[in-house]
Amino acid sequence: MDWRQALKETALQLEGTGVPDSSREAVYLLQWATGRSYHDWILDGGMLTESEMLRLEEGRRRRARREPMAYITGHQEFYGLDLTVTPAVLIPRPETEHLVEAVLDALDATRVRIVDVGTGSGAIALALKSRRPSWDVVGVDLCPEALAVASQNAWRLNLPVTWVRSDLLEAVSGRFHVIVANLPYIDPDWSDQAEPELRFEPDAALYAPEQGLALMRRLVKEAGPHLEPDGQLFLECGFDQAAALRQALAKAGFADIAVMPDYAGHDRIVSGRWTSGTEEGDHV
């Protein structure tokens, strides 16, 4: 089949199943199925081979079921890095790049020890390591399949990061200058209203009790003993959770608590400085 006809039919099928931006998604599928860029197709034209058509049909069916494109292609770009992703990990989101930026903007020291809690695909840990090669970066996750994906990404990108299987910080030793985390923060009561693509992502990486706050609150309580004096904690949160996290940080003994918005203006990042030795810090 001619490539333009294949692209048109793909876009129409995706549009018919409610896939947003169906024309753009069709381009992604064409590139994935053929191994040729859209630019190359425009310049050189041509026909899809039988094997390419079969692969494109497979992609169409999967995307029409609303399986995320990243799981179909096995890749997701994050902070300039090409990451491998599988259904064992959350697909890295653009808004999480704000979390990386917040950490990079806050520290300019050459020697920094940092732990990424709930690392998933390793996106945050690897993005930080790529920009600050001298930093000692540790990535933590409870899921062994997620750690396998993160380790594969680190090997492929040649970014040395230490990976640890741990329930939050339970199996992590030593103290850090920074703890950073993008933990599950969606209220389970919202699962029925979530976009269809979320059905394919791991529930454990999306949902948390207490209106999505349970794991973040627990990390706030546990973070102090793992931080150097004046060490910092950075958390990504839902658009309506910043106030609750500010309260939790203050109660746990953090000072200089800040809230940073994303590009849409939603409160997205909450950070605080560990006040080791203060009255609050002593009873954490």
Instruction: Give the neighbour order of strands across the main sheet.
Output: 5-4-3-6-7-9-8
Oligomer: single chain
| Structural domain tally | 2
N→C terminal distance: 66 Å
At the fourth CATH level, what is the homologous superfamily of the largest domain? Answer: Vaccinia Virus protein VP39
Q: Share of helix among residues? A: 25-40%
The average pLDDT is: 93
- State the CATH topology of the largest domain: Rossmann fold
Quick one: overall form? elongated
Task: Return residue spans where pLDDT drops below 50 for at least 5 consecutive residues.
Answer: 278-284
Tally of alpha and pi helices: 11
Label the structural class.
alpha/beta
The gyration radius over C-alpha positions equals 21 Å
What is the CATH-assigned architecture of the largest domain?
A: 3-Layer(aba) Sandwich
Furnish the topology, listing elements before pairings:
Elements lengths: L2 H14 L5 H13 L3 H7 L5 H15 L4 H5 L1 E4 L2 E4 L11 H11 L6 E5 L5 H9 L4 E6 L2 H14 L4 E4 L10 E6 L32 H10 L3 E10 L5 H11 L1 E8 L5 E8 L4 H4 L2
Parallel strand pairs: 3-4, 3-6, 4-5, 6-7
Antiparallel strand pairs: 1-2, 7-9, 8-9
Describe the structure.
The protein is α/β, with parallel strands linked by helices and about 280 residues long. The protein folds into 2 domains: about 5-65; about 80-280, 3-Layer(aba) Sandwich (Rossmann fold). The chain has helices at about 5-15, 20-35, 40-45, 50-65, 70-75, 95-105, 125-130, 145-155, 215-225, 240-250, 280; strands spanning about 75-80, 80-85, 115, 135-140, 160-165, 175-180, 225-235, 255-260, 265-275. Strands 5-4-3-6-7-9-8 form a 7-stranded mixed beta sheet, with helices on both faces. It has a two-stranded antiparallel sheet with strand order 1-2. Helix 1 packs across helix 2 (about 20-35) and helix 1 (about 5-15) runs parallel beside helix 4. The longest helix has 15 residues, at about 50-65. The model is unreliable at about 280-284 (pLDDT under 50).
